[in-house]
Amino acid sequence: PIGSKLRLKYFIKRINKFLKNPPLEAYMNISSFIIAIFEKRKIRKKYKEVENNINYIYECVDFKDLFKPKFDFFFKKYVYETILFFYAIKKAIKKEKPNILMVSSETNPPQRIAIALGHQNNIKSIAVQHGAVKYEAEVINRKENISSKCLSNPPYIPLPNYLCVYGKFYQNFFSQYGGYNKDQLAITGNPKYDSIVKSIKSFDKNNLKRKFGLEFEKKVILFLSVPFNDYDYNTRYLENLYEGLKSFKDSYILVKYHPNEFNKELHKKITSKKGMKNVRFFDDENIFELGFVSDVIVNSSGCTTVEDMAVIDKPVIIFDIATIDNDTKNLIKQKAAI
Question: What one-character DSSP code corresponds to residue 182?
């Protein structure tokens, strides 16, 4: 599966479990790790040479606070995994000789690498819509960033041959903003709904509260975290969020970490400092089970949360300390969230 997250502690376990359908990590070897380490050092050295000389001012506006955290995140943190993904996907394509590449989104680094390598090897790619996306999101390839000549033409973003979308609305959305023509967009629905709707019918709130060790009579607030690249902004956001939640002493505060959350200890540090003893943290637990036992869901971005929690008919509160974008305003206007 292209797009699986690199988790070294599960490396051997996952390879043994999926011998017939190995994860991407199975195609990494010692040489690729060594190459990634040296390449990372060279790239970080180059970035350090120019880091303090980058001009972030455009038309008298300083964009440093907006762009520098993103540059730091990529060149100092994510570049290593990106290089590993490149060599793993390249090796997987060479070994497996696939007729088609199926990727779990169109925009994340591993998926973009797979799409680009597919084009180089004349292998068509199919991407699946990555959640209930919005225009301001980073999970769409905007038309202005796509080459008008071909699907893969550096420095333009590589575009998959086809994209599976949730419905007519998103077919029009990606046709208008995503650089696709309608022949590339296939309406398949949201694939996770196929299994989730069946599972939810068997959910029992008391049994799930017992499973998570929650008292039956207490109210439950679920916070679905989002990993902000900017550590300072993330800290301010969590400080404000938990300051508001700490007054609900008679309710449970459940925190479900995002799969890419890299600041887990920050949550624990802030809640501990505020004396919040009613907080429970969850990592790999089923998000729909947690949502089902909850009375209200809190999140920052809105769209994905509304998409998931709408299935279990739970109210959603969008908490944002920055300017609320138009897509979020529309969710509020449509009474999908407050």
Answer: G
